[in-house]
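Example record

The entry below shows one chain as it appears in the dataset: sequence first, then structure tokens.
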Amino acid sequence: MMSQQQRTFMQMRTVLKVVDNSGAKKVMCIQVLKGKKGARLGDTIVASFKEAMPNGKVKKGKVVYGVVVRAAMQRGRYDGSEVKFDDNAVVLVDKQGQPIGPRVVLVDKQGQPIGPRVFGPVPHELRKKKHVKILTLAEHIA
């Protein structure tokens, strides 16, 4: 008899797949921002590179911010349905609230995605967490 695997939050030391084309393949969660126990869909985490593409812009061990776009833990929706994915995935974003470019530009609290493309499905719950830029880059919204 097979045992059912327990689905939990993304917490410290969870390895997540990177689903943008920034050059990273896998990151490990170091910390969940906003003082929560664990990260769910749309939450921002601090992560360290575990695996990167050779000749890429990013190097193993560097610390970055990321937004969780897919979670294996199911989440209920208001219409009674539930959304659940096969893997835990993250999109890398730049540091929150940092001005981009030479001029001081007012940047919203949410970081901007590093890679110009996002692969795979992304849930529409990200709109409520104000990650609209990730939704516009995604190829499929679930």
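Notes for this example: Confidence is low (pLDDT under 50) at residues 97-108. The first helix runs from residue 132 to 137.
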